[in-house]
Amino acid sequence: MVDATAAALSHTFYATATVLRLRFLFLLLILGSCAYDNAEDIAGPAPECTPPAEVSYVQHITPLLNRNCYACHNSALQSGNVNLQDFGQLQQQARSGVLLGNVKHLPGYKPMPQGGAKLSDCDIALLQRWVEAGTPNN
User: Fold this and answer.
1) pTM of the predicted model, to two decimals?
2) What is the DSSP string of 82-131?
């Protein structure tokens, strides 16, 4: 009877150890499959960004500013004494180079949006094209 009990315990121990080993190997397999070297390999390359030939203040720039700037630079808040909802102030910021310097995070400028992620290259290219066109109110 003792031999039978010992054999049963021995079998249970080895079965449990085998299950634990299999779980450990499965976990290693799962964790190992999640590793990658380059995010572009998974997400693919960033899409090409080609701003339109003619950038419209109403169609392109206003929505961009609404998403990224108006929360702080509006007529009520005017952070940094800047109201980008006022077209005249926006033109002044754009024509002086301050707007692009800030959103491009260039040295000597205040990185904007403050405390947020830098604008996408596409958004910056859109602003750049609008400024190069003379900041039209179209």
Assistant:
1) 0.66
2) --TTSHHHHHHHHHTTHHHHHHTT-TTS--SSTTSPPPPHHHHHHHHHHH
